[in-house]
Amino acid sequence: MKKVVTLFVCLCALTAYAADVADVVGRYAGGRGGGLTPITITYQSYNPADGQNDLTQNIDYYLPNSSKFGNGPYPVFMYIPATYEPYNSPLSLIFINQMLARGFMSASVQYMNTESQQNCTEYTARAQGIFDATRATSAVGALCSISKANCSKGIVDTGISQGAELVILSANYAPQVKAVFALSGGDNFINVAPLPGTLPCEDKANTRIPSNRLTLIDGQSDPYFGGQSNVQGPTGLTCAPGTFQCWSPDGSGAGWYIVQNSQNLVNMAGHCYFFDGNPPSPYACTGTPDPSWFTPATNNWSLAPNMDWLASFGTHRNFSPNGQ
Question: How far lies 140's CA from each of 56, 269, 277, in Å?
């Protein structure tokens, strides 16, 4: 049971680094979300208390710079937070600003992410509550009803940890989802008793996002989703054992990457490989963004190249000249 508590404490700790991250949001992330007041709307999310989509939750959205991108309507980006991470956290603003700078109406979505149940039954219900395009009161329904949103052009989304699990499922419920960038996710919990081991809902056979429109990046020492099988299962892309990056053969730039410990400044690519934990720990989700991940880094696992890929609707990647 201790390991389960550690899982939630680890992800909850995303809120503790606010001062570190807030300092860098405006400097590198595009400067829009960090300096603008969001427009807040609500939607009806999955309610674990009654199993219905009747839980009122918030969505914060921002519009890109009209002098650069016109008056819209704009394609839509959705950020889905990790377990216990506030939907409007400093980390969410990093991703929001990245996509604002690429011309997307960008939203962060609140949902009941404090539940202890981490299994396919709950993941599919939570994902459907957010992404169900057939329901006007879902998050997708609410966002697509906004006049500045052009969902027919496409929705792209990003999520971390539990958020990654939900965005991998997003196209099952919203055909407008064109590309997904997932961080620290997989289809099999490792060493986290008594959580279920396998998560078959995350397997490629059970998701509708095509293999060539999904990128999944995990850390080598991730204590929850570590190992090559955890990136191969959801993406459907298999490479030789011991490979740390694998890309779609069609050249779309989709694929998977396992960040090596040596690639992180503190030599610990754990569950939050994009942070430099102090002290380093595979469970740590505090600290400052790792310089090899954060803008302007151009590694294949870095932030900006993956947001560029996402903004292309998963059709083009600028691969790193250093091969990393």
Answer: 14, 33, 34
Taken in order of first residue, the domains within the chain and their CATH numbers are 2-311 (3.40.50)
Q: Phi/psi of residue 74, each to 5°?
A: -115, 155
- For every residue of 266-314, DSSP letters joined together read TS---TTTTEE-SS--TT---SEE-TTTSTT--STTSHHHHHHHHHTTS
134: Cα separation from own chain's centroid: 23
Cβ-count burial 285-315 (b if 16+ within 10 Å, e if not): bbbbbbebbbbebbbbbbbbbbbbbbbbbbb
Strands (E), the chain: 39-47, 52-62, 76-80, 105-109, 155-160, 177-183, 214-219, 245-247, 255-259, 275-276, 288-289
CB 143 within 8 A of CB 104: no
Asked whether 299 and 305 are in contact (CB, 8 A), the reply is: yes
Q: Give the pTM.
A: 0.91
Pairing of strands 76-80, 155-160: parallel
Along the 324 residues of the chain, how does pLDDT read in single tens digits? Answer: 223 323 332 343 333 333 334 444 444 444 445 557 899 999 999 999 999 999 999 999 999 999 999 999 999 999 999 999 999 999 999 999 999 999 999 999 999 999 888 899 999 999 999 999 999 999 999 999 999 999 999 999 999 999 999 999 999 999 999 999 999 999 998 866 656 689 999 999 999 999 999 999 999 999 999 999 999 999 999 999 999 999 999 999 999 999 999 999 999 999 999 999 888 999 988 889 999 999 999 999 999 999 999 999 999 999 999 999
119 sits in which H/E element: none
